[in-house]
Write a structure and sequence with these properties.
This protein is an alpha+beta fold and 155 residues long. It is 24% helix and 32% strand. The protein is built from three helices and ten strands. The protein has helices at 27-42, 87-93, 141-154, and strands at 45-50, 53-58, 64-68, 71-75, 80-83, 98-102, 105-108, 112-116, 123-127, 133-136. It is globular and about 50 Å long. The model has no long low-confidence stretch (mean pLDDT 86).
């Protein structure tokens, strides 16, 4: 299928918009649409806290969320921030590139560098350019594998 791609610049346009026009709703069109939505969601920001300061970080910079006692923390490669949301609230709000991988952790699938399967039940996930790792429980491991396969099929 030959696809026509173009960019129209309109200085009078109040808000940027992407229009995906197609003759039929094929599986390829749906996959492309979902990928565009995911890319747009990666640019979204959330409010995080560290000491007395509020930070507005893009979701793509978050490696994972985890509970620490009664507090939910957001981990980047080199920092840890607090969020006012509970894990179950984040699970509903976050875009599709986040996935719960244990009772206490939600992972950014886009940030995975490697999976270490040396454990008999579950695995550890590593991230690029940081020492941080998270554990994927045996219960959530099949869901993680399925989601990673789905992501590969989009690329």
């Amino acid at each position: 299928m030959m696809m026509k791609i173009r960019i129209e610049v309109d200085s009078a346009c109040p808000k940027e918009e992407i229009v995906f026009r197609c003759s039929s709703l094929s599986e390829e069109n749906v996959c492309l649409y979902e990928k565009l939505k995911e890319l747009a969601r990666q640019q979204e920001t959330m409010v995080f806290y560290k000491d007395n300061t509020e930070y507005f970080l893009s979701l793509s910079s978050i490696l994972f969320f985890e509970t620490d006692g009664r507090e939910v923390q957001a981990h980047t490669a080199d920092n840890v921030y607090r969020t006012a949301k509970r894990l179950y609230e984040l699970e509903e709000l976050l875009p599709a590139f986040f996935l719960r991988i244990s009772k206490s952790t939600i992972l950014n699938l886009s940030a995975i560098y490697s999976l270490d399967r040396t454990l008999p039940s579950g695995c550890y996930i590593s991230f690029a350019d940081t020492y941080k790792k998270v554990y994927v429980s045996r219960h959530y491991y099949p869901i993680l594998r399925r989601r990673l396969e789905e992501r590969r099929s989009y690329i």
